[in-house]
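We modelled the chain as a single entity of 823 amino acids. Its sequence is:
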Amino acid sequence: MGDSRGGCCPPMDLFRSEPMQLVQLIIPIESARLTVSYLGDLGLLQFKDLNSEKSPFQRTYAGQIKKCGEMARTLRFFKEQMLKAGLSPSAKSLAETDVDVDDLEVKLGELEAELIEMNANGEKLQRSYNELVEYKIVLKKAGDFFPSAQQSATAQRREMGSSQMGEESIETPLLQEQETSADLSKQVKLGFITGLVPRGKSMAFERILFRATRGNVFLKQVPIESPVTDPVTGEKTEKNAFMVFYSGERAKNKILKICDAFGANRYPFSEDHGKQALMIHEVSGKISDLKSTIDAGSLHRDYLLRTIGDQFDQWNLKVKKEKSIYHTLNMLSLDVTKKCLVAEAWGPVFATKQIQEALQRASVDSNSQVGAILQVLHTRELPPTYFCTNKFTAAFQEIVDAYGVAKYQEANPGVHTIVTFPFLFAVMFGDWGHGICLLLATLILIVREKKLSSQKLGDITEMTFGGRYVIMMMSLFSIYTGFIYNECFSVALDLFGPSAYACRDLSCRDAYSIGLIKVRDTYPFGVDPAWHGSRTELPFLNSLKMKMSILLGVAQMNLGIILSYCNAIFFGNSLNIWFQFIPQLIFLNSLFGYLSVLIILKWYTGSQADLYHIMIYMFLSPTDELGDNQLFQGQKKAQLVLLLLALVSVPWMLLPKPFLLKRQHENRRQGQSYAQVQTTDETLHSEANHDSHGHGHGHEEFEFSEVFVHQLIHTIEFVLGAVSNTASYLRLWALSLAHSQLSIVFYEKVLLLAWGYDNIVILIVGIIIFIFATVGVLLIMETLSAFLHALRLHWVEFQNKFYEGDGYKFYPFSFAMIEDEED
């Protein structure tokens, strides 16, 4: 089978999952790493963990994984630094070159040490630069304070002197200036502290200073016009320059502690005006020198980060691959001689030749004297489920897998979902105008899929992009059903010819459901446009869509029962054919299949028979005459036969299967010691067979009561589900009606109403409201609603007839998956 199929995947057959096999690989230690690397490139083996009892630290390659983890941490550090610098990894070096891991570890270590040293030096220089900038501000603000204070003091003395000339007053000081200046040695020398304090803390800073020194300080604050960079935090902060005058060492110590508590940066200052000018000049020179040094350091750092960015993706991919290789090697077990590694892995049968070629290539490239050995193992374990999908079928398969992964080689609903899912959606969303809008939006995603697939999208955008082909199919089917309903934004058009009806006279224009006569052949495709706008439009469309919903529902449920027959044939389970498929088919079609036939007959014959009356009295009074409700000859006898078949099929489903399973189990126990050895496929099919019976593997004890209760639940579920599931398909009618009526409301009450005014502003506003209502409600909310209802119909009403969905997905060891993973 593997020889006849070329390429990575065989021709797709989604109806059954790929045949799988469990293989054992015996790999020499010297070629183990290269072998696993080549198998990762191939991406068609899912390795089993043969060391599950060991902790991660007890495994063979724990040291290599730790080394790869350290390199990954270094690369994350590089990425953070590049993002801070506004740089991004270059995408030009994605082609992988042969890089030795040990050399890469040394290189990354050297680059990290160099970058850390540059960051530390840059931070020190930047802090010194910020301190000097603050110091310069303090020098200017404090330097302005002393001259202004001296000028104000001189002005006050002149005022006092001029007011006291010629006369004495009560305000004349007792001590004259000559007396006060007589003993200068007794005057108190005031100290001062200058600095910057955050503006938000300045009021609290002033109050605490006043309380701590009992008011024996003088504080002068000046706001700084623009925010300054704080040397400690490195953030832009609004600050005030302050100068505190104090007396005594005790007060000084208190002020210093308060400054530290409030994060106020202190700077030295001289009273001498000449020294102030000299200090400002020195500080300005230092700032200029530091600025040049910081700029040169930033250029060198940016150059280093660009050099790292050019090779970042290549290094990151290399580290990820190495880490995944050693993780896989840790799942392998050492043989007794400790010279070989033993692996067990699941792989598709068609990939056997490719796996052998990869093993041979690894042995040659690693110069191993002994080649790796591949042998197929026979097991009773259920294999993983693997479907080869492409970008079109993958989204439909994801819809099925979200409910449950298919059991190994059971019938896959994904094949039918490709058609039935968008079709049921379109039944609820039938409007070819809305369908074209959806199609145009989807075509944008499809045309730009190469560009969008390489970008990081938001959650909703990524989900929409992933289902672009599902939406495309939904829009195409919506256009088709829109033509059937003859609705384009709720407007009926004569696309396929003129209407078959015409008015008998002019009086039918206001109520043209009265007096309509058929003047032409039946409208060739879809609903005749004459029905739209008539008084009988809603009853007619309700009847049409309700009956159509029942027909579609019964058809899809019958398809599900037929697929259960396909499963039973494939797995060789004759009990499920005779005691599940046949009675279920009889029960469903005796009731609702018969209802579907009556609907078609009523359409064909134009009869006025009441189908509600027929179905109700088929159960309540099956022997009564039908009268006007008779649609064909022998209908009464046919109903009696169908009712009898429906009643017989219930015990047919319930009773025989548990007793036959019990007898099979007893026969198997009697002949167990003489049973013939089964092949792999036979074993797997028998295992799947036993699982579907509900009594586990042959090694477990058979519990008849459990099997009988399980069958009872299954029978009741099907009988009640046949009624409830058929009723559930009426949601097709309800949502289709809701979509149509919403379209009519937006068209008539918004667009036509605005059109009726002779005002261009009202018309433009009406068109804008109509567009937003159509897009927001009908194209987004209604799309989501119809999507969810179609999803429910597939998961519950369709798949519960045959789909077990208790398998597990095939996750191969593949470098392609690693490349798609985000950090």
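As a brief sanity check on the tokenised model: The chain has a mean pLDDT of 86. The two ends are 39 Å apart (CA to CA).
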